[in-house]
Specification:
- The protein is of the alpha+beta class.
- It has 8 helices and 23 strands.
- It has helices spanning 8-21, 195-209, 227-237, 276-281, 318-330, 361-372, 434-443, 451-455; strands at 39-48, 53-60, 76-83, 91-99, 101-106, 114-121, 124-125, 134-135, 145-148, 157-164, 173-174, 186-187, 214-218, 247-250, 289-293, 296-300, 336-339, 377-382, 389-391, 400-403, 413-420, 423-430, 464-468.
- It is globular and about 65 Å long.
Length: 475
């Protein structure tokens, strides 16, 4: 539960609800069992690489309501017909049958080719959400969609890093809005494991399966920085590898120092309360850092290095700003990735004027100016907004700011950074364990189902992109 005043993200959700989204009940009725009645909906093109694509959709019983505004789930088969001409879909791919939560990966695609596809369950074409790629012109039916695979990054593949954020270990209700009691959230189905744990464990499994050698978690690893939740978060992350060598963590606003008896055993916070996050992840040093991963300089920022209740804009202390600028000046041409919880600025955000979704605007301008003087910086990874959004700002046109969707709720996943000697690719993947797919589809009903339009990324390039860049000096 969010303990402080409504944040900018809270107000965004509230405004959508007031506009007509309605209220969200918290419980999920039992699944329907009549597979023959299943209707496929919510088709989305999630991931698009040079040789593969990932499609997801849902099957439910028409005319039913599970209490969240969607059809009751109904298991079915999953099939995708695809090809290079809209009327000749000659290839077939399948996903697991017997589930309402469908995940199909198309492989063996050619770079730079346009493909056409139709997804179906029980022989019925899946209805798209508007995030399924372009509708194919001239197709015999209106249920054929198209995408064009990109060219791969130049050069040979060097290594891959999983970028993630917003795990919120300890959270029990998704979609709560500050202290507005008439807005209800979404809880896990009774008897099922806590959803943050399901999603965090699925993150680790999929990041490793996709070839990630390192993992960067950009803040809000906990719901409210309770010691038990931080221990749980670290225990799950430790299954990926060794902390500070294989994975790195930064602080989010939910990980700030807190007041109260539950936190009394932790180190006294610099600004307020007791800082359990510091004890869990940075017991002997500052909560900002620079590390080397395969020759790549990785800089982690604590974007809530300030007093506050978590509902305001982020900020760096004067000491951290000075350290950061000095670190960049040490080797301005060295390939560098920066990550922290709050974005520098947010685009396509109706409430960006409030500033609560990003860093302090003056500090962000200063950072972009420093990036302009540091040619080696190529990527700034941020979370906090719980969405996929790719931005490039005029003050530092060589740097991509990549916001990544939350781990803990729809779309539920991570972005894989694939580093090549001549550039890099960013691809978002939903986690795919059965429990993760079920919770992702359940939690998409935040804002009565409007949340996907704000979080998955309205452009394919917001979640999948390729950049040419000389990175040949990396290991």
């Amino acid at each position: 539960m969010i303990c402080c005043r409504p944040s900018r993200r809270d107000l965004l959700r509230w405004s959508a609800v007031v506009a007509g989204a309605g209220l969200l009940p918290a419980l999920d009725p039992p699944s329907a069992r009549a597979a023959g009645a299943a209707r496929p909906v919510n088709l989305e093109l999630v991931t698009l690489t040079e040789t593969s694509a990932v499609l997801t959709w849902y099957t439910g019983v028409p005319g039913t309501d599970d209490g969240l505004g969607r059809m009751r789930p109904a298991p079915a088969d999953a099939e995708v017909l695809f090809g290079t001409h809209p009327s000749r879909l000659t290839r077939t791919a399948h996903g697991p049958s017997g589930t309402p939560y469908h995940y199909v990966e198309l492989t063996g695609l050619e770079p730079g080719r346009t493909y056409y596809y139709k997804a179906r369950s029980n022989g019925l074409a899946a209805a798209a959400t508007g995030l399924a790629g372009g509708q194919a012109a001239g197709a015999p039916q209106g249920d054929v969609f198209a995408f064009t695979t990109p060219q791969p990054p130049p050069g040979r593949h060097l290594f891959s890093i999983a970028l993630c954020n917003d795990l919120h270990l300890g959270e029990t209700v998704a979609g709560l809005i500050g202290q507005l009691p008439w807005i209800k959230g979404i809880s896990q189905v009774p008897g099922h494991p806590p959803y943050p744990e399901i999603m965090a464990r699925a993150l680790i499994a999929d990041a490793r399966a996709r070839g990630a050698e390192h993992l960067l978690a950009a803040g809000d690893v906990s719901s409210e920085a309770a010691p038990a939740d931080l221990r749980n978060a670290k225990g799950i992350l430790d299954t990926f590898g060794t902390y500070t060598r294989d994975y790195l963590v930064t602080r989010g606003n939910h990980d700030r120092a807190h007041e109260g008896a539950a936190y009394s055993t932790c180190t006294v916070g610099r600004y307020q309360g007791n800082d359990c996050f510091q004890d869990a992840f940075f017991p002997s040093g500052p909560s900002h850092f620079a590390r080397e991963l395969r020759g790549l300089r990785v800089i982690g920022l604590d974007t809530y290095d300030k007093p506050g209740d978590g509902g305001d804009s982020g900020g760096l202390s004067a000491e951290q700003r000075s350290w950061f600028e000095a670190e960049l000046k040490k080797d301005p041409d060295r390939p560098t990735l920066v990550f922290g919880h709050h974005p520098l600025f947010t685009e396509n955000d109706p409430l960006s004027v409030t500033g609560a979704h990003s860093l302090d605007a003056g500090q962000s301008l200063g950072i972009l100016g420093a990036y302009a003087r540091t040619p080696g910086v190529f990527l700034h990874h941020a979370g906090h907004t719980h969405r996929n959004q790719r931005s490039v700002f005029p003050l530092a046109p060589r740097v991509v700011q990549q916001e990544v969707g939350a781990v803990k709720e729809y779309p539920g996943g991570f972005t894989l950074l694939r580093v090549h000697s001549g550039g890099y690719a960013l691809n978002f993947y939903k986690t795919r364990s059965p429990e993760a797919r079920a919770w992702s589809e359940r939690s998409r009903q935040e804002l009565s189902g409007l949340w996907p339009q704000l979080s998955l990324g309205n452009r394919v390039s917001d979640r999948n992109s390729v950049v040419a860049r000389d990175l040949s000096g990396l290991g």
